[in-house]
Amino acid sequence: MRYQISGKQIDIGEALQTHVKEELGAAVKKYAERPTDANVIFSKSASEFVCEATVHLSTGLTAQAKGHAHEIYAAFESCCEKMEKQLRRYKRRLKDHHRDREEPVELFGAASYILASDEADEDSEPSSLQPIIVAEMETKIPSLSVGEAVMQMELAGAPVLVFRNEAKSGVNVVYRREDGNIGWIDPQQ
After folding, report:
1. Which of 80, 47, 75 is nearest to 63 (CA)?
2. How does it associate, per the subunit comment (predicted)?
3. CATH of domain 2-97
4. Residue 55 in contact with residue 80, Cβ under 8 Å?
5. For labeling, which of 6, 8, 131, 188 is most exposed (least CB within 10 Å)?
6. Helices and strands per DSSP (H, E), number in the chain
7. Fold of the domain spanning 106-119+131-185
């Protein structure tokens, strides 16, 4: 597994990097057979250290975790525990409910836009009906089953996930509803 360990405006020593590689590697290997790479970022927020970790699996799924503590090692341990819990749940779901995926998830390119909100006076007429585009970037749309899409959305902690349905080859959406359930949008072709 490839590691990228860095700090935002703080120095990360060799001992901490070695500790992260050993502990995160052991936690990930326990629940995921083929992790590809891990990105760990340490930062400081007021008096606390923050550790954010992202692990990419060969199946195309991504697990993310974040930990806070007053000491940098404790922040990493908190993050590592959350990562291990996510991967344990992921493996249990795969074992219990989903078929084994022998090939990596197929990804399709798509454009992603961030639109600016108009916080001006709401009574005034806009000069144009077109929204202002703040950012345009490239994103990937995975080809997954509905169950895998729900799992990926939960692992990423995202409120919504757009994916290509393997069964129907159409673009679908899963999202977390206000009542706590998962919604699935499957447009007719």
Report:
1. 80
2. Associates exclusively with 100S ribosomes, which are dimers of 70S ribosomes.
3. 3.30.160.100
4. no
5. 188
6. 3, 9
7. SHC Adaptor Protein (3.30.505)
